[in-house]
Every structure is written in C-alpha cells, then in structure tokens.
Amino acid sequence: MVLAGGASAIGGPRLPVEPNVTISCVIPTHDRNDFLRESLESIGAQTLPPLEVIVASDIPNPEAERITHEFSQRSGIEARFVDNSAGAGASSSRNAGAAVARGDLLAFLDDDDLWRPGYLEQASAAMTRDDVDLVVTWISKFSGDVVQDGANMPPGLSHTRVAAVNPGATGSNVLLRRSAFDDVGGYDIGLPVRNDTDFLYRFLAAGKTYAVVSARNVLQRKHDRGQLMSLTEARARGTELYLAKHGASLRLRDRNRIRGSIHRIRFHSSRTLPAKLKHAFLIVVLSPVDIMTLLRDIKHRRMVLVRPLEERTS
Q: For the CA atoms of 152, 156, 160, 165, what is the dihedral angle to 10 degrees?
C-alpha cells in the first residue's frame, strides 16, 4: 500500500508544533513480524521524526528484535526492543514501552497498523494549537487494496458518551502527553479487549482534554491473524470483564448496549442456528440499535448461519 498524506509530505510548509517537544513511539507486538516491518517503515517515513521507537513483545521474539535493530540502523531513529514476555497482551506491552520511554509525548501504534507520513506532524500541531492532553486522528480501515473510512470521532465528548461504544480512539491513533498517561495509570492489563475504550473513559473522567484531526492519517489493517477485533467467544468474555468493571457507574441504556454487543459477538461465534436465534432475540430486547450493525456484519461477512465464520471453506 502506498502511503501519502500530511502537509510536509506533499511539499507544504512545516506545521507549528511545540518547540523542543519529543515523541516516543510505542509498538506492542505479538509474533507478526512481517506486519511489524511495515509499521516501522511507516514511522520512518514521518515528516516529523520521533525521538525514539520502542517495540515491546509479550513473547520472546529474536526476529522482532532483529527487525527493530535493522530499522534503527536504516532510518537513523533510535529504536529499542523490550522483552515483555513476563506480561501478556497489548495493554501490558504498551505500558512496558511507555515505562522506558523518554519522550514528552507518547504515540502508540499496533504492530499491524500504519501511519501516513504526516500523522505525527499534524497530531502534534493540533496538540499545540488546542493545548490539549491527547489528540485523536481519524482512521481508514484496509484489507489488501480495499480502503474504507473508519469512525469519525467528534470533539467535545464526555466520559459518559464513550462508555458503551468507542467513538474512534484506538491503540494506533492517539498522541498524548506522557504526564497525562501517567496520571490515568496507563492501560488496564486486566482487560484483553475494550482496553482502548476503558482508557478513553478513564482519561475523560479524570478531566483530561482532547482534540481531533479529521485527516485519515491512520490505516487500520483488517485481517484474521489473531486480531482482537475478531468476533469470537474470547472477545465476548473480554467484553463481560469490561462491563463488570464499569457497569455500576454506567447508565442502564449503556449497560444494555454493551450487553447487546456481547450477544452480537456470540451470534457470530455460535455453532448452531438455535443459539444464533437466541442471541439475535436478545439483541432486539437489549439494544435494538445493534440490529443494523448485525445486519451489516452478515452482509459484509457473507455469513452462513449454521456454522461460525472461521469454519467456512472456500
């Protein structure tokens, strides 16, 4: 995929950013070395280079360490590998990377996603212009050569507005002040999914501020290689953990919306038609708005009702 974007990337003037501000990029990785190479190259192409790149792996991975070292030699950007095999999951690796970061700002990038060249420059300029704690950049989703618009996160949301549905802040499109990250306590390593929603909820509940860059400078890859967004029973159980953590402080409407999303996931992962019908019924009862989401899922995934998606053969 050819990456383009950002004022400086197309010959425009350098955008105003805080003088002497430094950025640490943190990539959590888990045995996706080919994707990791591409993610690192997208950092190397930034019009505003970071101070450093930190790759944190939750499994021993000598190949990822070698890829990180080669990127540093090739790009001239300091890059370090952190063995976080004592931890587990992306949240633990993000926290481990942030713990050794030296930059004033933190920019997280999942190992399967990409940044367009102007991402860091435009996000840093927005932080300077609006004097905020965090900047969210709009994303595009891609699979192969097919690219679609992602969520359009609006400005001015309160924590109660982001509790049930993530409006568009992921593990790849937030640039934030290191001090704000520390104030909130980083990512919750006890949540295998919805950890980005949980972080945003706690961030806004703590009174932190954010701005939005409406340019689609982040590319979120859609694939089937251990992606946390896959509609599996593990994701359903992880969403139940999120609900258990925040349920008491949420409005009934939001609790039901989350319960509806759990049944939508289980609709897809169920192996029998009766089970799928049960979950579809509960979606209607708990969160009718998710019916349209379910129908879009079925249309886009060309789903066979009596078998889960992963069991279909071509």
A: 0
pLDDT digits (tens, 9 = 90+) for 11-58: 556 788 877 899 999 999 999 999 999 999 999 999 999 999 999 999
The pair of three-digit structure tokens given for residue 142, joined into one six-digit string:
């891609």
Tokens standing for 117? 């060249």
Mean pLDDT along residues 284-313: 59
Which residues, at least 6 apart from 2, have a Cβ–Cβ distance to it below 8 Å?
none
Supply the Cα-derived Rg of the chain in whole angstroms.
20
Residue-level pLDDT at 18: 79
Spatial neighbors of 299 by CB under 8 A, at least 6 apart, are none
Query: Is 54:25 a contact under the CB 8 Å cutoff?
Result: yes
Closest CA to 113 of 191, 56, 40: 40
Enumerate helices (H) and strands (E) in the chain, giving the number of each: 10, 9
Give the helix ranges, DSSP H, for 185-251: 195-205, 233-246
**Cα 31 to Cα 64: distance, rounded to the nearest angstrom:** 8
Distance between CA atoms of residues 160 and 61, nearest Å: 40
* Sign of the torsion formed by the C-alpha atoms of 89, 59, 114 and 179: positive
Structural domains in the chain plus CATH codes = 8-221 (3.90.550.10), 233-311 (no CATH)
Q: What is the pLDDT of residues 154-185, one digit of tens each?
A: 999 999 999 998 999 999 999 999 999 999 99
Q: Is the model's pLDDT at 313 over the cut of 70?
A: no
Tell me the pLDDT of the chain averaged across its residues.
88
Strands (E), 130-263: 134-143, 146-149, 174-177, 210-221
CA distances from 311 to 30, 271, 306, 308 (A): 24, 9, 10, 6
Name the pTM for this structure: 0.85
The C-alpha atoms of residue 18 and residue 126 are separated, in whole angstroms, by 10
d(CA 259, CA 239): 9
